[in-house]
Write a structure and sequence with these properties.
Rossmann fold; alpha/beta; binds S-adenosylmethionine; 14% strand; seven-stranded mixed sheet
């Protein structure tokens, strides 16, 4: 169940946007320059993030260094954004962000407003909080996404997307970043299967998932700490996949795999050469896949 909150009882949507706001504010060369993120924070979160000691304080508060998982989150959104730009360049005009949380793409990408309609799918409570934060923001958004309230565990996508004006006959790009671990395998498969049936062939999806792969002792320890944190926050991780099982799932529901990248690929692409040590530190996989032609 998605949570909303501020300060002590943060939902994961707010936790993620806090990390992006801090990264955009304090990093020398941000992997994703999410300057809008700061406007979506509640007062207590904004006060924490603007402190120059944010990282040290958050390590002290949480008892572990969240920057290694934050780097996965930030890198994944940059990976998505790069694919969206490639799709827009070839004329794709619809972008559906699944598990959007406090994503800021629509709010900050003034350059794409005329070419791209953005749909955001998330739990209705998270969307309500986000809308109120946008209304109260100190900056005017470049555009507003079309909000599609959905609980992936209980609701299908099609009716909501259709009511929001999604055109199934035109190609679309979907992203599903930093969200699948919070969903059951059944909800993930049902959602991907629905997209493969609903979206025009050639439409693409970019997503990441928690990988069930051999781990070092340090990785095991880090992941255990992380899992007990997310469990305590009320949004436990519910799924992990072996990479070959995830590829089989994609094929089964009607996608053709384009790229299956590792956290090491993510490092090479976006983090190599950084001097601040910011880098992905947990195993994760990123996928680009395309809706297969219907036979
Ligand atoms: C860690 S946040 C990631 C948000 C955003 N994609 C990002 O990278 O910042 C996970 C998101 O999944 C959403 N979520 C989790 N379970 C959900 C469900 N059953 N239905 C709809 N959304 C859900 C949460 O509300 C939250 O916004």
């Amino acid at each position: 169940m998605a949570k909303t909150g501020d300060g002590e009882s943060l939902g994961t949507a707010e936790g993620a946007v806090m990390g992006r706001a801090a990264h955009a504010l304090h990093a020398e060369d941000p992997v994703l320059d999410d300057h809008w993120a700061i406007h979506l924070l509640g007062e207590a979160s904004r006060a924490q993030v603007t402190s120059p000691d944010y990282l040290a304080l958050s390590i002290e508060r949480a008892g572990f260094d969240a920057s290694r998982i934050l780097a996965i989150g930030v890198g994944a959104l940059r990976y998505a954004e790069d694919e969206v730009e490639r799709c827009v360049a070839r004329g794709v005009g619809q972008y559906v962000i699944l598990g959007a949380g406090f994503d800021t793409f629509a709010l900050r990408r003034a350059d794409l407003v005329d070419r791209l309609v953005v749909f955001e799918v998330d739990h209705p409570d998270v969307q309500a909080l986000k809308r109120s934060r946008i209304e109260a923001a100190a900056e005017t958004p470049a555009s507003l996404p079309r909000f599609v309230p959905v609980d992936f565990e209980t609701t299908t996508l099609e009716a909501g997307l259709s009511a929001a004006g999604f055109d199934p006959d035109r190609e679309a790009i979907f992203s599903f970043m930093n969200t699948t671990p919070y969903l059951t395998e059944e909800a993930i498969e049902a959602t991907l299967s629905e997209i493969a049936r609903l979206a025009a062939p050639g439409s693409r999806i970019v997503l990441n998932y928690g990988a069930e792969v051999p781990l070092s002792a340090a990785q095991v320890e880090y992941l255990e700490t992380l899992q007990s944190n997310v469990r305590a926050s009320g949004e436990p991780w519910r799924s992990r996949f072996r990479p070959e099982a995830f590829e089989a799932l994609l094929e089964r529901v009607g996608f053709v795999l384009i790229e299956h990248a590792t956290e090491a690929d993510l490092f090479e692409r976006y983090f190599a050469g950084r001097r601040d040590g910011f880098r992905p530190g947990v195993p994760g996989r990123l996928v680009t896949a395309e809706v297969a032609p219907r036979g």
